[in-house]
Amino acid sequence: MEPLTSAKIEKIIYVTYLIAALDITWLFLQFSITPYLAKRLGFDTLWFGYLQTTVGVIQLLGGPVFGRFADIFGARAALSLSCFASVVYFLLLAAADSTILLFLHKLPAVFMHVLPGSQMVVADLSESGNRAEALAKLGLCFGIGMITGSSLGGTLSTHYGEKSAACVGAGGSLVSLLLVLKFIPKHTKHNTTESKKGGAGSVFNLKEIIRLMKFPGVAKTFTVKIVSGLPSGIFQVMFSIIAMNFFQLQPKENGYLMAYFGLMQMVIQGAVIGRLTARFSENSLLHVSVGLSSMVGLAQALTTSVFQFCLVAVPMMFSLSIFNVITDSMLTKSVPASDTGTMLGLCASVQSLMRTIGPTIGGFLYETYGVPSFGYTQFSVNIVVFTLLLISHTKRSPRQHNK
Predict the structure, then answer these.
(1) According to the model, what pLDDT value does residue 397 have?
(2) Residue 386: Cβ within 10 Å count
């Protein structure tokens, strides 16, 4: 393979941002239509939870394997597989006119990991010192996709129906596939020899995946990512139900609200995070994001209207954006370059874990204690994590000083 020049690397990264933005667009288009399609097919909150859990389990199983696949076979093969799976996913969604078909259309999600694949390309091609900022710009793409997908999904499903919206998603995923085949190189690792050595063995080699947890700092950061992110993940999984039942939003209004979230994420990840990472350490930003998340949870618990929620959403998106970018950056820096794909696959599996257990826990909290319980849970969990992080930092500082 001919060496990649700076100009080529820059072009690949920009195309990767475009592919990520398109993928998130189709993802949020799907978010805008699935709850209403499920309701039309007779789903209640419990069965909708089962549907979400099904997706979570499928992607939880597929995430680490996808990351390993990317490390072994390269970025182009991994992203091509994901985009093709998205095409099949949306075609099945367009054909879903029964409970069974709505569940079956989720099966291709096992291969749908375009965002982790895009993160791998960016992590491979960016310098270590600029990695957090480069990954944050993927969050900017996330915001663009959230705005476009939510608005487009709400408008299409309102005026043309869910099937038409799903067909648009299939067509868009096909465009993403063509971009991958045209612009993404077969391998994006700086050292392909090291990549092949580190990626030797089977895609399903569980020992190679678990091995990453033994690198310094990985287990701790990964645990924080799961525990601290769980309450907000549960809230996100249940938000479509909360928006529909608690806030009484129609598809179009829900689309506007998601677009508002996307706009905030664009500003935060496009203009704020890069400046923060240049001035503060990643550990400090991790502490801030966890502490702020606990306060956001308390504010959420006291929220009773859409207007109040829009105000709370500002610090909520700020803490979530910093938390996700910083933890991903810290984890990819903690492992060899040959294993960044597998590590990002594991990071993606955290989100899948939220979608797996989130609907069950969220459905129980919603039915038993109401919407405020999500906020109180987030406050309690994150204040404990924040305290433990401070204690750990305090204990480590004297040892570093003595050395």
Answers:
(1) 59
(2) 22
**216: its two tokens:** 């310094």
Those residues whose C-beta lies under 8 Å from the C-beta of residue 347, and which sit 6 or more positions away, are 116, 119, 225, 327, 328, 331
Q: Which residues contact 277 (CB under 8 A, 6 or more apart)?
A: 132, 133, 136, 285, 326, 329
| 226-233 average pLDDT score | 90
For 126-149, the pLDDT digits (tens) are 777 777 778 888 877 877 887 888
DSSP secondary structure, 112-151, as one string: --HHHHHHHHHHHHS-GGGHHHHHHHHHHHHHHHHHHHHH
Strands (E) across 67-208 are located at none
CA distance 178 to 337: 27
**Burial (CB count within 10 angstroms: exposed 0-12, middle 13-18, buried 19+), residue 158:** middle
Distance CA 24, CA 146 (A): 6
Domain boundaries, the chain: 6-191+212-397
Residues 348-379 have pLDDT tens digits of 788 777 777 877 788 888 888 988 999 999 99
Closest CA to 337 of 221, 144, 210, 197: 197
Please choose, from the candidates 125, 143, 400, the residue with its C-alpha nearest in 3D space to the C-alpha of residue 273.
Answer: 143
pLDDT of the residue at 125: 85
Mean pLDDT comparison of 50-64, 222-236, 345-359, highest-scoring range: 222-236
Q: Which fold has domain 6-191+212-397?
A: Growth Hormone; Chain: A; (1.20.1250)
Mean pLDDT within 275-294: 91
First to last CA, the chain: 45
Rounded Cα–Cα distance for residues 309 and 303 (Å): 6
How far apart are alpha carbons 232 and 10 in whole angstroms? 34
Q: What is the pLDDT of residue 262?
A: 77
How many C-beta atoms surround the C-beta of residue 9 within 10 A?
Answer: 17
Residue type, 168: V
CB neighbours of residue 150 within 10 Å: 27
Cβ-based neighbour number of residue 311 at 10 Å: 12
Cut 0.90: pTM above it: no
